DNA sequence: GCCGTTTTCGGCCCGACTGTTTTCAGTCG
């Protein structure tokens, strides 16, 4: 699967082409192609082989040729030629806030500025202020921009860090200020695995009171801006939070606008134009007489465009708009559809709580069952259990099941996929388990073919049902190990295996793109497990469901939406 | 360079903000 790689090339092509002064619409076409390829669930090399590249929306004859050329030779002639005219360093100059392609080009042509160092020197020597279109303030801003670029942490924030902060701010506002409606928008509402900043929208009859309160809440580290309708702060954690107060009549249009994604919104506005309408953050307007026809409710905004309302998690312009147009959107899984948690650890291995505490927590979450899945013996660092120890755990589970009836605890295990593709126990010993998970915890630096073969080997073990955290990524920490995920999925379908969406917010593995591929391209089923090591982290289920919703998964695609009775039937088939 | 339930040619999202300007270009989200 080389989609990501090809997409990167076209992002680069777009950047370089823009700096070279190519037709802006051509640049837009490259960007659009890159984005579509990135979100494709089918390997692009397969499409190339079958000569179906120009069937991709946004890919025409010319871009199809470039894709083919890249796949065959590793190069795009057009890109190589442009690079001869555009120095490498110009790309980083665009990252300075306030500088876009146009200004970078002027700086290069008039002052010969080729990189950050040149830029800083020129600004300090006051050479920039005399250029046409530039001035003293711009020069100052450029220096500030260079500084913040160098200071800036490049990581985005994990959703599991950002969402609780956003929620506590909303709570404080609700309690202490006269706000009426409120909504956390942006990538948080879309449940992206990482977020850049927090967007909160509220309505209020007394905006200035709300703003005065907002900029002085305890965890504010810095106030970036304070106005009547918009204020921005930086929290102690370093996350930027924007609070906007909007009119009640525009609330629906505003949350639509600020939820994004950008690409989704651009498409909506294009659709509006074709219907002789205009869409902005204030509402949907008729172009003829500027009359407002929607704005209070978000559903009305979509309806005004003849679209079904689209769940925020799906708003990435990867086909959801077309389906909404035809009224064929899938009914995606709901947060309350989850009936059990399939992956957790207790004090028996490296968890912080007892089985009983985990069970009580599960009951408080409204679950009908849990599967307790300690590490198996090969994972020494995590107190992996022997078969004898699992037998003991089983006795305690039996006792607790009598106590908590009809709620049920199952005995599972998280097996290790060892470096030769074997697992911790003999297959005959696995019969004591209700459910066997298996995952890679060691030997992640092996080659793609080695890791792929390891997993394929484990797929053949009848008793192993679920592959957990299948790509091994830790967000902002460790990238995926190299594995041919298409080959794994194809093989898994033969044996009816299931893949986990690990709901721990550092992992979220499978990712949205991979989960969608597993279900929609390979017809596989998904399990969502929190991998909780404490009662507290069982709350992370919502992040896993968020990924499932971003992957367009339906209730029936996810096995832990089954009722206890259905789940027991499922286990008997295992 | 792509695309077509008005189009195979002539379009290609919207508004706010900033700084440089006397009416607007560039940038951002």
From TrEMBL:
Subcellular location as annotated: Cytoplasm
Cofactor(s) needed by this chain: Mg(2+)
Top-level taxonomic group: Bacteria
Main localization category: cytoplasm
GO MF annotations in UniProt: class I DNA-(apurinic or apyrimidinic site) endonuclease activity; DNA binding; DNA-directed DNA polymerase activity; phosphoric ester hydrolase activity; zinc ion binding
GO cellular component, one term: cytosol
EC number: 2.7.7.7, 4.2.99.18
Domain Polymerase/histidinol phosphatase N-terminal: start-end pairs: 340-419
GO biological processes: DNA repair
Keywords: DNA damage, DNA repair, DNA replication, DNA synthesis, DNA-directed DNA polymerase, Methylation, Nucleotidyltransferase, Sodium, Transferase, Ubl conjugation
Domain DNA-directed DNA polymerase X: 1-316
Known catalytic reactions: a 5'-end 2'-deoxyribose-2'-deoxyribonucleotide-DNA = (2E,4S)-4-hydroxypenten-2-al-5-phosphate + a 5'-end 5'-phospho-2'-deoxyribonucleoside-DNA + H(+); DNA(n) + a 2'-deoxyribonucleoside 5'-triphosphate = DNA(n+1) + diphosphate; 2'-deoxyribonucleotide-(2'-deoxyribose 5'-phosphate)-2'-deoxyribonucleotide-DNA = a 3'-end 2'-deoxyribonucleotide-(2,3-dehydro-2,3-deoxyribose 5'-phosphate)-DNA + a 5'-end 5'-phospho-2'-deoxyribonucleoside-DNA + H(+)
Domain Helix-hairpin-helix DNA-binding motif class, first and last residues per copy: 51-70, 91-110, 126-145
Function per UniProt: Repair polymerase that plays a key role in base-excision repair. During this process, the damaged base is excised by specific DNA glycosylases, the DNA backbone is nicked at the abasic site by an apurinic/apyrimidic (AP) endonuclease, and POLB removes 5'-deoxyribose-phosphate from the preincised AP site acting as a 5'-deoxyribose-phosphate lyase (5'-dRP lyase); through its DNA polymerase activity, it adds one nucleotide to the 3' end of the arising single-nucleotide gap.
NCBIfam families: PRK08609.1
Protein name per Swiss-Prot or TrEMBL: DNA polymerase beta
